[in-house]
């Protein structure tokens, strides 16, 4: 074996024992940190379930735990390699202002995200509208709030935009009021109008999916409600009423469907007409004769 080969092998051996083992240990440290973050999150989640206080930000908490443990692991690895960061940090002082300006928007998003979490303005799993974008909140990340829209899209909204936009929560409580407009014909008598209003009210009272305020509980956001019918004015082709009723979140679509079908069925059974817009076209006979004569002249000229 030549002397050059011997030197190369010795150099590789020295490098492996000096840095190779440390590199392997570094990967192990990062792996352990990642697993610890997952384990701690499971403990927090289990504790929240036992206390019957579910986490409002599970995805956000998971992200913060991973970031924290990986940062700690990075500091351990840097110390293990005896890397002195102070010269690097002092050399960056010259360009610190430039970096600060470049990171102005990300830092703004980060602190806006913290304010969103602290103020409880947006919670994961809530249905809401943020600046005209509607959907369910998937996660609040360090720089973005992630929202899943009703049509299956996933949109990342900068936290500064979320913080400065108007936020509408569709279900701040369990129950929500629905407004349904319906019109009846002008041909009805006053007694028929009263009968129609009684039908509307009876449907609301008898439909089981319409929330009546049962099981009143402040803790569960249940409360007393009122389901009623109001006169809404004289329209162009109908006398209009508005039906206002409350539904639970889980019954929203089924309740609206059942109420609409029940009202239509009851009105048909009572012989009460629901008018619809119609356009009647009357053709003057003189116009018809003029058009016919003009067409006849055109035909004669062609021949």
Question: What does this 3D model show about the protein?
Answer:
- The chain is of the alpha+beta class.
- It has three domains: 3-83, no CATH class; 104-169, SH3 type barrels (Roll), CATH 2.30.30; 175-269, Alpha-Beta Plaits (2-Layer Sandwich), CATH 3.30.70.100.
- The protein has nine helices and eight strands.
- It has helices at 3-50, 58-80, 86-91, 96-102, 104-119, 159-164, 190-206, 252-269, 285-302, and strands spanning 127-130, 133-140, 144-149, 154-158, 167-169, 175-184, 228-234, 239-248.
- The protein has a five-stranded antiparallel sheet. A three-stranded antiparallel sheet has the order 6-8-7.
- Strand 3 and strand 4 form a beta hairpin.
- The protein is elongated.
- The mean pLDDT is 77.
Brief write-up:
The chain has about 300 residues and is an alpha+beta fold. The chain is about 50% helix and about 15% strand.
Q: What sequence of helices (H) and strands (E) makes up the elements?
A: HHHHHEEEEHEEHEEHH
C-alpha geometry: elongated
Strand count: 8
Strand content: 15-25%
Largest sheet: 5 strands, antiparallel
Domains (count): 3
Rg value: 35 Å
Looking at the overall shape, the CATH architecture of the largest domain is 2-Layer Sandwich
Largest sheet strand order: 4-3-2-1-5
Tally of helical segments: 9
What are the salient characteristics of this protein?
SH3 type barrels; 3 domains; 9 helices; Alpha-Beta Plaits; five-stranded antiparallel beta sheet; about 15% strand; elongated; about 300 residues; 8 strands; alpha+beta
């Amino acid at each position: 074996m030549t002397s050059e080969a011997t030197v190369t092998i010795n150099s590789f051996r020295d490098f492996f024992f000096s840095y190779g083992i440390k590199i392997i240990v570094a990967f192990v440290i990062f792996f352990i940190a990642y697993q610890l973050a997952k384990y701690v999150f499971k403990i927090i989640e289990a504790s929240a379930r036992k206390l019957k206080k579910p986490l409002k930000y599970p995805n956000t908490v998971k992200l913060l735990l991973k970031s924290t443990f990986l940062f700690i692991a990075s500091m351990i690895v840097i110390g293990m390699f005896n890397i002195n960061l102070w010269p690097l940090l002092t050399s960056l002082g010259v360009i610190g202002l430039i970096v600060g300006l470049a990171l102005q928007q990300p830092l703004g998003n980060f602190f806006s995200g913290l304010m969103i979490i602290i103020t409880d303005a947006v919670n994961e799993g809530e249905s809401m509208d943020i600046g005209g974008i509607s959907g369910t909140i998937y996660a609040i990340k360090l720089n973005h709030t992630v929202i899943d829209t009703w049509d299956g899209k996933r949109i990342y909204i900068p936290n500064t935009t979320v913080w400065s936009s108007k936020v509408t929560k569709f279900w701040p409580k369990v129950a929500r009021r629905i407004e349904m407009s319906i019109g009846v014909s002008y041909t009805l008598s006053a007694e028929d109008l009263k009968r129609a209003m009684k039908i509307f009210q009876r449907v609301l009272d008898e439909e089981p999916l319409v929330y009546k305020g049962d099981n009143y509980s402040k803790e569960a956001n249940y409360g007393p409600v009122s389901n009623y019918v109001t006169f809404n004015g004289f329209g162009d082709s109908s006398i209009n009423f508005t039906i206002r009723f409350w539904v639970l979140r889980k019954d929203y679509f089924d309740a609206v469907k059942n109420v609409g079908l029940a009202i239509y069925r009851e009105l048909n059974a009572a012989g009460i007409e629901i008018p619809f817009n119609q356009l009647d076209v009357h053709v003057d006979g003189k116009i018809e004769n003029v058009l016919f004569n003009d067409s006849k002249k055109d035909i004669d000229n062609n021949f």
